[in-house]
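Example 212.
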Amino acid sequence: MFLLKEVKYKDILNIESLSIKKHKTTCIVGESGSGKTTLLRLLNKLISYDRGEIFYNNQPLSDIDSIKLRRDVVMLPQAPAIFSGSIKDNLLIGLKFSERPLASDNQLYEVLKLVKLNKELSQDTEKLSGGEKQRVALARVILMNPEVLLLDEPSSALDEDTEHIIIESLVNYTKESDKTLIMVTHSKKVASQFADEIIEIKQGKIINGKGV
Ligand SMILES: Nc1ncnc2c1ncn2[C@@H]1O[C@H](COP(=O)(O)OP(=O)(O)OP(=O)(O)O)[C@@H](O)[C@H]1O
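Predicted structure in complex with adenosine-5'-triphosphate:
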């Protein structure tokens, strides 16, 4: 799915070779500041590498239009924006921005079920907890139905039990729908339990990974 060859980004990332497989769950782990978010941003073409090449389905990213790529590859940032308004407004905003067809209320409730958020669509987001907001943002990305989900610490605001339930649900969903999940996580436990592949980054270099 993704293949990286001698990719260098500033002094932050230096990757000789890395492959990330289609239809698998890949977890990226490593200490704070090691370059995990930077790697996700490169894969989504939010930033451009200085040297080397990244291939997406055998095509160099430099040849793929960013907007087109981001229809297939959607990133959930570490601190996603939640807007004032209802849960429904917040779920639909991703679809509106990317000019995708809007979803029915039933579809919206389905995706809330997937992230285990038992709330009314009409509820104001200002009254949600940090972990609940994080799940609204996750639901928003899932609703966009991309081929590849790039998730940056999607469960950082959750307690361990809730984290486990939601990641399990997410991994099952991506497997059932033949999607590719690439997820940065602080939790080695989550990585060892759910990942098909683990990539470990240290000071911008891949030091260990079944994905290498
Ligand atoms: N645009 C930028 N310009 C310069 N330095 C940057 C830029 N973005 C990130 N950095 C630096 O690059 C390094 C890697 O950052 P990155 O956000 O990828 O780390 P991370 O592994 O995701 O960290 P964390 O787990 O804390 O989120 C850090 O030292 C950071 O300060």
